[in-house]
């Protein structure tokens, strides 16, 4: 009989990431019919000596929230949990991985398709990849495949990232490695390509002649509660800016790819990254919120920024002179991620538009996905007054009843389909680290210190001053 099976292996199955993101995403895919039970088996692997049932109960707890009172929901959770098998073992010895391989093989028929999702700290990536390669990939046949999905942080700077890439690269081909940046799975991030290259409106305006500055902003209204230990080792630049915000920058700034093939898109992203000029110290403001070090897992004298504004400048024909302001912070006044493209003032203005504010195109990634254009219109009425108004595309209103998929759901589906478009390629990762490594080294050495700010505020006032200066400076240029 014709058959084929897909084995999804979640390594680090008892950990936080698996519980909060991976299993819920798998469940959503299952519920929508993307993981047919006749073909799919899910394996959890971790060191914890727990039973199958214990793991399932944990996952059930996350999948069934108090608001889910529908009996059908709990029934589908139960059916989903039946797909899961748990195998316990260590991350650096063959024994556990042989057990895992046996378990997978038992359920496999036809071509062997195996997806290994590493919901693990990067320190164990090399040994886990080695074990997977050695013990769990021998059955690969012509129709089958093995793929590795890894999460950030991929290293701490260019050197460590390259080392990690080289170690994994010795074992698996780049086409088998899926580096997740979950921002690439967000609806409005994926929309950027379409927006830019399918609309005549934007193409002629999208350059230094018309755009004054681009701001890519991430705010959270909570601190590092519960993950201070992890965070303190990385800081906001490694946690958010070097990956999530920089990926968004690439999509805003890149040239049109020759096609939608993943390699064509990633080639263009790499070119943007390689065109970014070295960051100037005076174009950086760091902050740390008051109370950050009271977390027992954070050292009292920590120099780690929980806030940063960094200006990047792209040295190419399209963007020379346009500041890209990347700003991210924890414990700020709101939770929001958005892109603001600010246009230059109208030349020879006869309406005093400047007083009202300039044209701006805002793409809100979250919450409440939306795009809106701020523009000047005549104030309705008898006078010839002007006012700033908005052309507003709010997803909630425009796409009522459409559920926007979670980033992880979409990205896992891509890994199953073998589509690397929304994943970070090795050279892209390296180029991204090269932008930030010199700055990070200065911060790590204590030569650049974060400015304290109040939780619930906008962050240090110096960041707003930097922004005003950068964008005003730019205006003065001919
Ligand atoms: C993660 C960071 O990558 O992204 C977290 O490690 C951050 O610190 C999270 O909270 C934000 O993701 P989202 O999708 O909630 O914006």
From TrEMBL:
One of its GO terms (biological process) is pentose-phosphate shunt, oxidative branch. The keyword Oxidoreductase applies. Residues 9-191 form the Glucose-6-phosphate dehydrogenase NAD-binding domain. The keyword Oxidoreductase applies. Keywords: Carbohydrate metabolism, Glucose metabolism, NADP, Oxidoreductase. Residues 193-470 form the Glucose-6-phosphate dehydrogenase C-terminal domain. Pathway: Carbohydrate degradation; pentose phosphate pathway; D-ribulose 5-phosphate from D-glucose 6-phosphate (oxidative stage): step 1/3. Signal peptide: none annotated. GO terms for molecular function: glucose-6-phosphate dehydrogenase activity; NADP binding. Belongs to the glucose-6-phosphate dehydrogenase family. This is Glucose-6-phosphate 1-dehydrogenase. The chain holds residues 53 to 530 of 617 of the full protein.
């Amino acid at each position: 009989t014709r058959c084929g099976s897909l084995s999804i292996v979640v390594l680090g199955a008892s950990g936080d990431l698996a519980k909060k993101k991976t299993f819920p995403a798998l469940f959503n895919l299952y519920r929508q019919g993307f993981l047919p039970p006749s073909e799919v088996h899910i394996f959890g692997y971790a060191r914890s000596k727990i039973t199958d049932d214990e793991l399932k109960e944990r996952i059930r707890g996350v999948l069934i929230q108090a608001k889910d009172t529908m009996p059908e929901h709990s029934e589908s959770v139960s059916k989903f949990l039946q797909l899961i098998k748990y195998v316990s073992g260590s991350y650096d010895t063959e024994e556990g991985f042989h057990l895992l391989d046996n378990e997978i093989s038992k359920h496999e028929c036809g071509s062997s398709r195996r997806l290994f999702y590493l919901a693990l700290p990067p320190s164990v990536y090399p040994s886990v990849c080695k074990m997977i390669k050695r013990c769990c990939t021998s059955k690969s046949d012509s129709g089958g495949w093995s793929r590795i999905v890894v999460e950030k942080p991929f290293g701490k700077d260019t050197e460590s990232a390259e080392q990690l890439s080289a170690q994994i690269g010795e074992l698996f081909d780049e086409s088998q490695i899926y580096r997740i940046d979950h921002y690439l799975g967000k609806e409005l991030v994926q929309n950027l390509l379409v927006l830019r290259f399918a609309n005549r409106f934007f193409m002629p305006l999208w350059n230094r002649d018309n755009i004054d500055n681009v701001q890519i902003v991430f705010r959270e209204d909570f601190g590092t509660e519960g993950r201070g230990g992890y965070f303190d080792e990385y800081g906001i630049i490694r946690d958010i800016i070097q990956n999530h915000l920089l990926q968004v920058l690439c999509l805003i700034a890149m040239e049109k790819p020759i096609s939608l093939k993943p390699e064509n898109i990633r080639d263009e992203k790499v070119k943007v990254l390689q065109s970014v000029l070295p960051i100037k110290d005076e174009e950086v403001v760091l902050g740390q919120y008051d109370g950050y070090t009271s977390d027992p897992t954070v050292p009292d004298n920590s120099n780690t920024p929980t806030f940063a504004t960094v200006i990047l400048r792209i040295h190419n024909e399209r963007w020379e002179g346009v500041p890209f302001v990347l700003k991210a912070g924890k414990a700020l006044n709101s939770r929001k991620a958005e892109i603001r493209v600010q246009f230059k003032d109208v030349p020879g203005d006869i309406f005093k538009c400047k007083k009202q504010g300039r044209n701006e195109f805002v793409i809100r990634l979250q919450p409440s996905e939306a795009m809106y254009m701020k523009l000047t219109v005549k104030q309705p009425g008898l006078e010839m007054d002007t006012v700033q108004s908005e052309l507003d595309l709010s997803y909630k209103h425009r796409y009522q009843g459409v559920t926007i998929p979670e980033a992880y759901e979409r990205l896992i589906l891509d890994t199953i389909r073998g589509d690397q478009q929304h994943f970070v390629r090795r050279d892209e990762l390296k180029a991204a680290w090269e932008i930030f490594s010199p700055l990070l080294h200065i911060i790590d050495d204590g030569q650049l210190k974060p400015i304290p700010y109040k939780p619930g505020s906008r962050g240090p006032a110096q960041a707003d001053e930097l922004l005003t200066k950068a964008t005003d400076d730019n205006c003065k240029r001919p």
